Amino acid sequence: MSRKSTDAAGTGAAGRDLDRIDRSLLAKLQHDGRTTVSQLAREVNLTITPTLERVRRLEASGHIEGYFARLNPGKLGLGLLAYVEVSLDRTTPDAFERFKQVMLAHDEVMECHMVAGGFDYLLKVRVTDMESYRRFLGDRIASVRGVQQTHTYFVMEEVKSTQRIVVPE
After folding, report:
1. Which among 63, 98, 112, 135 would be 20 to 30 A from 105, CA to CA?
2. CATH top-level class for 74-154?
């Protein structure tokens, strides 16, 4: 069996090959990744074996990247959430790679996106308090060779926070 081609976002031809049952399985597993195969089978009107085969195929094709528990950061003492704009002094492949590797090494950085526009990266950072953020900014971001400027925005209220993706019909 040949693999369908996909673009960098994991869409393309493979995304169009999903049928109604595959899309339903994705939506149900996204809602509750702990749903049993037998429950999924009942909900999509299949027997267990073809349901399990479909789920395994969706995992193997990369449509399902993993399963995880959503934790409450406040209960874990990580109540300060910040978004940080980072501008580099040069936009060379070496500078991008150096910054990327440093960000990958720090658990405080929940997300790191290279963006187009008035700055180079947008970080989502979660720490315990303002003092720990100040240390993180000085020791881990501003100290990276090539970082020219940062702007930080502290979250006062999380109005909506989700990992859910709308599964296209």
Report:
1. 63
2. alpha beta
Asked if residue 120 lies in contact with residue 90, where contact means CB atoms within 8 angstroms, the answer is no
Sequence ranges of the domains in the chain: 14-60, 74-154
First to last CA, the chain: 25
Determine the distance from the C-alpha atom of residue 19 to the mean position of all C-alpha atoms in its chain, rounded to a whole number: 25
DSSP per residue, 67-103 = --PPP-TGGGT--EEEEEEEEES---HHHHHHHHHHH
Tokens of 49: 């074996």
| pTM of the predicted model as reported, rounded to 2 decimal places | 0.83
Report pLDDT digits (tens) over 14-58.
455 899 999 999 999 999 999 999 999 999 999 999 999 999 999
Is pLDDT above 70 for 11?
Answer: no
